[in-house]
Amino acid sequence: MEEQNKKLNYVQFILPGAILLAALIISGTLVLTRGQGGSGAAQLGGVPQEQGKPVDIKINADDHVLGNKDAKITIVTYADFRCPFCERFYTQTEKQFITDYVNTGKARFIFRSFAFLGQQSTWASEASECAAEQGKYWEYYNWLFSNQASESDLNYYSKANLTKYAGTVGLNTTQFASCLNSDKYAKRVADDLASGKTIGVTGTPTTFINGQKTVGAQPYETFRSVIDGLLNK
């Protein structure tokens, strides 16, 4: 009888938990949360949820804004150019809500670097700021996410290579190299990271829709539901 009770407890409590974990992994809701020290862990993203009151996010004059500055909806995403979940978010979700909401004037999109995967991530973020100097921030941004390398390929994001990639989007590589090698935007990138930590960003991608926090590379339909709900208020 005791052995039967043990088996029953396993079925009732352990098995459902294993099934739930497998479902979450398959649905792609794991968020990379590797710290500055190099240790790594996976954080379950879950469905978008409002954690208390929406976060009050100050929009700065030097933020990179795509879309109508007076739009009713403001979408702020913190991500790392080297994060594979961020690439998935960019490809499967971000492009769609930009087409449906940003390009139609209903929302504005703001990207802030959360460069926490090491020095190469910092250089990639600084490189995007150097591209902005030449008026091609979004072109370089799109190139980095569309051509993302494996996280283990550190040489791909060397300053020399980042300069070479700048040429593919029509940037003056001499000017770009001078900017990148000077570490001119190191503080700007560090400030973006700090601002994310201040409002509770612990992994990437993390997105705020009118301050409402959404964690992970969630499906487009989930974001659409949140945005439509806010538009209909």
Overall SS class = alpha+beta
Arrangement of strands in the largest sheet: 3-5-4-6-7
Number of helices: 8
Terminal CA distance:
58 Å
Number of structural units classed as domains: 1
Order of helices and strands: HEEEEHEHHHHHEEH
Roughly what fraction of the amino acids lie in strands?
5-15%
Overall CATH class: Alpha Beta
Total beta-strand segments: 7
How many strands, what sense, and barrel or not for the largest sheet?
5 strands, mixed
Shape field: globular
Mean pLDDT value: 82
Question: How does this structure look, described?
Answer:
By secondary structure, this protein is an alpha+beta fold. It has a single domain, classed as Glutaredoxin (3-Layer(aba) Sandwich). The protein is 48% helix and 14% strand. It contains 8 helices and 7 strands. The protein has helices at 2-26, 84-102, 119-133, 137-146, 159-168, 173-181, 186-198, 220-231; strands spanning 30-32, 42-44, 64-67, 73-79, 107-113, 206-209, 212-215. It has a 5-stranded mixed β-sheet with strand order 3-5-4-6-7, sandwiched between helices. It has a two-stranded antiparallel ribbon with strand order 1-2. α3 (119-133) packs antiparallel against α4, α3 runs parallel beside α5 (159-168) and α3 packs across α7 (186-198). Residues 2-51 have low confidence and may be disordered.
